[in-house]
Amino acid sequence: MSPISKSNSKTKSTIQDVAELAGVSKMTVSRVLNNDEKVSDKTRLKVKEAANKLHYRPNISARRLASAKSYFIGLLYENPSQGGYVSQFMMSALKSCRQRGYHLVVDECEGTQVEKLTITRDLVEETRVDGVILLPPFCNNIEILNELKALNVPYIRVSPDVELTQSPFVCMDDYQAAFEMTNLLIEQGHRDIAFIIGHPDVGASRLRYQGFLDAMRSNKLTIPPEYIEQGLFSYKSGLSAAKALLTCNNMPTAIFASNDDMAAAVISVANSLGIQVPQQLSVVGYDDTPIATTIWPNITTVKQPIEAMAEAAIAMLTTGKFDQGLSDKLSDLRHVLDFELKQRDSTSRVKS
After folding, report:
1. How many CB atoms are closer than 10 A to CB 105?
2. Could you say which of 60, 132, 190, 347 would form a disulfide bridge with 300 (CB–CB 3.0 to 4.6 Å)?
3. How far is CA 177 from CA 100, 172, 215, 320, in A?
4. Residues 88-98: pLDDT tens digits?
5. pLDDT recorded at residue 7
6. What is the 3-state secondary structure (H, E, C) of 229-257?
7. Is the pLDDT of residue 36 over 70?
8. Mean pLDDT to the nearest integer, 161-177
């Protein structure tokens, strides 16, 4: 039976089938599946096309027995209120793992510090993960970092703001993105701009808030104390913050929320109060998660490269591009990705 006809039957395709269709050896197919950089791009493409055509999926148990790898990558997160961010990151990481022949193991680390350490230790010891990705704010937990170091498992952090030379990490420039988004509102004629701060445990919250403050100050604009509200990155916290901002004596003409969930909450409260968005109030968010384009008006926001950050983290762990602990230079450990301002329907120029 030929490899092509076999793919259409109920019999599962094998590595031999892929090798025959691609016209290479089984060893070459194995090297491609294990991301061996010694294989040429032309050969790699032929093997991947053959594997896709045959719907070939590697036998992970056999691969684990044949090497020191487990082909599992762990993903740990702590703050479920960042639902859109976590799910978007996770889906991209799942896809990236699948493309590289790995499986993603996800666990939520809630509870006491002892419970978080136990969850982390169990993940590493029970699944023998080849590496771990830590999402914010979990990525700033020093005891967790020390535990992973003691367990001798590589890890990548996403947008940390402490111990930056302790491990490789992926991030974007949260400060600059917030600075530019604030300037966009100012260029539209807004002077009375309020801000909803993100979760206090997340380093990006501080960077975004500082970017907002510096943009306002550089344009010589004052910020009344009542224009600043603390949020938690959750829709519920956005509702509370929005109610305070939209019922104060001098209502702002624009509100910058530190993520899209809170920006969506602002729009909801504005609608309930009969305030038109964007005619009477401009609203901007951050992240460009799905909610930004599923509500009306669509939210003007900072597009954080969440998918690209997940792909970069998986690539760093599966290829060993960043060698853990071999450098204390920030430039060798940091992988910075670009952001984009997405102008949509929730903002408009101030009417004179």
Report:
1. 17
2. 347
3. 31, 9, 11, 29
4. 999 999 999 98
5. 39
6. EECCCCHHHHHHHHHHHHCCCCCCCEEEE
7. no
8. 91
Total residues belonging to the chain? 352
Question: Which residues, listed in sequence order, are joined to residue 72 by a DSSP beta bridge?
Answer: 103
The rounded distance, in Å, linking the Cα atoms of 305 and 149 is 28
Distance CA 107, CA 352 (A): 52
pLDDT at 227 over 60: yes
- Give CA–CA dist 165/332, Å, rounded: 9
CB 238 within 8 Å of CB 266: yes
Residue 76: both structure tokens together: 């740990």
Domains present along the chain, CATH in parentheses: 3-57 (1.10.260.40), 72-172+306-337 (3.40.50.2300), 174-304 (3.40.50.2300)
Residue 160: cis peptide before it, omega within 30 degrees of 0: no
Q: Which amino acid is at 4?
A: I
Is a pLDDT exceeding 90 seen at residue 135? Answer: yes
Query: Within 10 Å of residue 43's Cβ, how many Cβ atoms?
Result: 16
Closest CA to 278 of 248, 306, 254, 250: 254
Q: Which residues pair with 73 in a beta bridge?
A: 104, 131
Instruction: Supply 318's token pair.
Output: 């599966």
The pTM score is 0.76
Burial class (CB in 10 A: 0-12, 13-18, 19+), 307: middle
Cis peptide bond N-terminal to 58, omega within 30: no
Q: Which of 98, 97, 75, 96 is nearest to 86 (CA)?
A: 75
Cα–Cα distance for residue pair 203/75, rounded to 1 Å: 19
Residues near 80 by beta carbon (within 8 Å), at least 6 away in sequence? 86, 108, 110
3-class DSSP assignment, residue 339 = coil
Q: What would the two tokens of residue 283 be? A: 């609203």
Q: Report in angstroms the alpha-carbon separations of 108 from 78, 79, 105, 120.
A: 6, 8, 10, 10
Structural contact between residues 304 and 342, judged by C-beta atoms closer than 8 angstroms: no
